[in-house]
Each structure stands twice: as structure tokens, then as C-alpha cells.
Amino acid sequence: MNLPEVHNKKPSVPLSLEKVGVSGVKMPIGFVYFENKPTLVVPTFSAYINLPANQKGIHASRNYEIITEVLEEFAGKTYKLENACSEIAKELLKRHEYASRSVVKAVGEAMVEKTTPKSEMKTYEPCKLIALATARKNHEGNIITRKMVGVGIGGITACPCAQEMLKENFMQGLDEKSRKILEGFPWATHMQRSFGLIITEIPEGFKIDASKLVWIIEKSMSAPSYGLLKRIDEIELVDMAVKNPRFVEDCVRFMMKNFAESFQDFPDKVVVKFKQKSSETIHKHDFVAERVTTLGEIRGELKNLNL
After folding, report:
1. Are residues 172 and 307 located together in one domain of the fold?
2. C-alpha of 74 from chain center
3. Which is nearest to 126 in space by CA: 141, 143, 108, 149?
4. Of 221, 295, 273, nearest in space to 303 by CA
5. Residue 136 included in any domain
6. Residue 200: which CATH number?
7. How far apart are the first and last CA of the chain?
8. Residue range of the domain that includes 75
9. pTM, entire model
10. β-sheet with 37-40: strand ranges across
11. Which of 31, 83, 252, 276 could form a disulfide with 78 if both were Cys (CB 3.0 to 4.6 A apart)?
């Protein structure tokens, strides 16, 4: 039976749209690389194309079919999530001949094996994995892709402001000798459960191990966090955090610096997003800091600071 192609009709209001597609598509596709080891992830996909003004709608079922078919090629293999997204983005433009741009995003959670700092016990920590790919047709009809990868992981921030005020309040009236004795004391402050995020473009010909981004985020906070902690681990983390107090602003700045130092071979044009969010303890609101920039801009600013 020949059914009418309603999607191909002219819309009542012929205006172009930037993104049309499907979201929330979960696929049990197996293992992705993390720390050069296969890690089980069940990602959720979103797949979009642009829609020209003369096209009423997209052939939506194609998006789901393309995700399924492309992922079947990766079945039973260990792969990088951003490569799967790139293949889906290219196939979208091949199947939707009226489209010139596509965007595919995958978000999943990996359980990362870690060792607690003092007791050295094995623990598994959740890590958010993000992959993004875009594709576009050039004037010759060739498809050009761009890939991005990101991670988000939790940790600890300790407030430097409250710590400094508590320290000064306590030291008022003390003689110089007493002040020197207490100078290195681990002063108390309020702490936050904090979440750091880095999403970076992957330059052509380069690879990124997501575990390196995790290392950068955790290094940029006051201290990492763990699901399993014995008492000696708790002491170690609290001591680490209060000796390394940081605002969310500090975390983002350290992420930028650590990223530039970790990827010295990346070209200046690489675009990176940095974000930190702390769930406050003494406030009823949270604090967020964010910057989207190029690696070249970061390098220029650090050079001017002689850092």
C-alpha cells in the first residue's frame, strides 16, 4: 500500500529549523575505552538534523534506525563513544538527503575502579561520559565531521573564605609566637559536594583518554571523593581539602591551567568547555562557574601571567 509522504509536503509556515530529531534513545551497546580498559556503559543518544524551509518534517524513524544499525557494527567490540557518534552523524546526512547538518550526542555513566588514599581498598566511582559529533555537507557534497568528548565527576571543595575568617577571628589577640605555631594548623571550614565537567574538541589525528580528563578535574578541586572510605581515608581527605581550599572559580581556573599543561601538542584552535558546580552546605543555593574558550586563548593568558 502506498502511503502519502506527509513529511515531504510544504509546511504551512515555510521557515527553516536548526535541529529536529530524537532524544532519549538508550542502547545496550557494550564496552567503551576508559583508562585503556573496556568499561561497560549504556549510553543515551540524541540525534538531530537541520530541516529546510520547504520540508514539512523529517523521516523520524530513520534516526532510530541509523543509531541501531551503526551501533550493530560496534557490537561485541571495545570502542570510543565519540567515534560511534561520528558514524551516526555521517549516516544521518546520507539518509536525510534534504539535510546539510547533523548533531549526535551520547551520555552514559561508567563505573571507574579506584583505590582509597590510605587504606588502599578498591572502590567503584560513577563517572559521566559525554560524546558529541557534528557533521555537515560542504559545497562539493562531502561530509565533514567534528568530534568532542567530555567527562564529569564529583569531588570536594572547601570554602577558603570561611576558613580565613575563622582563622583571623581565632588569632585576634594572640602574640606573635602563638600565631606562628598556629599558622600551619588545618583550619576548619564548610565543604561542598562538587561536580566538575570538561568537554573538549578532539583535533583531527589525535586521541583522548577520558581518564586524563578525570585526573584534571579531580586535581583541580580541593580533594577527590570516594564511595568507600575507612576512617584513615576520611582523615586524609578532610586534611587534604582544608589544606587546599578552593572556590568553584578556582576549580575552573585550575582546570584550564592543568588542561593546557596536559595537552601541549593540541593546536590552539581546539575549543574546550570547563564547568564546576558546588552543592552548598550552609547556603540553600548552589554555586557555578563556567568558561568556554580555545586552548590558544588559555595559553595566551597563562603566558602573560608567566605561568
Report:
1. yes
2. 23
3. 108
4. 295
5. no
6. 3.10.270.10
7. 70
8. 1-108
9. 0.89
10. 37-40, 31-34, 78-79
11. 31
CB 186, CB 243: distance < 8 Å:
yes
Q: Are residues 97 and 163 in the same domain?
A: no
Per-residue pLDDT reduced to its tens digit, 102-129: 999 999 998 888 899 999 999 988 999 9
Cα–Cα distance list, 253 to 39, 162, 221, 289 (Å): 30, 20, 10, 9
The predicted pLDDT at position 164 comes to: 86
> Any idea which residue has 555537507 for its cell?
137
Query: Does a structural domain hold residue 87?
Result: yes
Alpha carbon distance 66, 58 (integer Å): 14
Task: Say if residue 244 is in the same domain as residue 197.
Answer: yes
Nearest residue to 141 via CA among 90, 179, 106: 90
The CA distance from 159 to 278, in Å, is: 10
How many domains is the chain built from? 2
pLDDT single digits (tens) 34-70? 667 777 788 899 999 999 998 888 887 888 999 999 9
Where is the domain boundary, 108, 134, 151? Answer: 108
If asked whether residues 244 and 286 sit together in one domain, one would say yes
Q: What radius of gyration do the chain's Cα atoms show?
A: 24
Q: d(Cα 245, Cα 241) in Å, to the nearest integer?
A: 6
Distance CA 163, CA 68 (A): 53
Please name the residue that has the C-alpha cell 523529517: 58
Question: What CA–CA distance (Å, rounded) separates 194 from 286?
Answer: 10
